[in-house]
Specification:
Collagenase (Catalytic Domain), globular
């Protein structure tokens, strides 16, 4: 009898508690090369004034990590072009058009080391009533910038309960609970990704020189790769989020992480 009662209690508790995702959500072990922790990663601000507070929140949130500090600096490109800068992340917004994507993150890698990245938000969609909200802006900014650190999603099921993480894609960022900021599992994952140290750095400094073989060829380095036709093969696409890979040869690749706008 008591066994039956105990089993019933366990069932009821499981039914009401939110589901936690504890699986790894690193992005194929991609990481910035660095020789010490915490390391400082520059975020180039190429944003309009309406987006600046959201980048500020994102930078503050991720800088709570024990292995990473982000530093907002003057942008090195323009919102429309959003060309990458070696050793850092450029963050941009513009009306990129009805091209399907709401937010986009790209990393250029040499082997498994990230050497540059961009994060973009598409004002064509963010100017609509559905997406022009603090909830959506915080979620997408937080998530796209985090992809440039080497983080993947915790969860990609559109309509299941929120995990209180911006790395959980959702149809309802505000919740409750809110998915506008990182959670502890995101910080733990960063610690795992950056647990080891490298003998070189790919992070921009005043005297940065990439080791031989890590520098991205100019033809691949200095373009903005905005359009789907430039992203290479599809790795996965569930209709809400997608990942693409373009191989330049010699271990040098571009990865593009996309959040699709609903109905696109």
């Amino acid at each position: 009898m008591w066994s039956s009662v105990f089993s019933l209690v366990i069932f009821l508790v499981a039914a009401v508690l939110p589901v936690a995702v504890e699986a790894s959500h690193s992005w194929n072990n991609f990481h910035w090369g660095r020789t010490s922790n915490p390391f400082s990663l520059k975020l180039g601000d190429n944003l309009s004034s309406t987006w600046d507070p959201y980048l500020g929140t994102t930078s503050s949130d991720w800088s709570q990590s024990s292995v990473l500090d982000t530093l907002i600096v003057a942008g090195g490109t323009t919102g429309r072009r959003c060309r990458p800068t070696s050793g850092r992340v450029e963050v941009c917004n513009a009306k990129y058009g009805n091209n399907g994507w709401l937010g986009l993150a790209q990393i250029w890698v040499s082997g498994d080391h990230i050497v540059q990245g961009v994060a973009k938000v598409n004002d064509t969609y963010f100017s609509t009533a559905k997406y022009n909200t603090p909830g959506w802006k915080n979620l997408v900014m937080c998530q796209e910038v985090a992809h440039t650190f080497g983080l993947d999603h915790q969860d990609e099921i559109f309509d299941n309960p929120n995990l209180v993480s911006c790395m959980d894609y959702t149809s309802n960022p505000l919740g409750p609970p809110s998915n506008e900021h990182p959670n502890q599992h995101d910080y733990d994952m960063l610690e795992t990704i950056y647990a080891h140290l490298d003998s070189f750095t790919t992070v921009q400094s005043g005297t940065q020189k990439l080791p031989l073989g890590l520098a991205i060829a100019a033809a691949a380095r200095n373009q903005d790769f905005e359009n789907r036709s430039e992203w290479g093969r599809t790795i996965r696409d569930n209709g809400h989020v997608a990942v693409f890979e373009r191989d330049f040869g010699g271990g040098q690749k571009l990865f593009t992480f996309v959040i699709w706008a609903e109905g696109e």
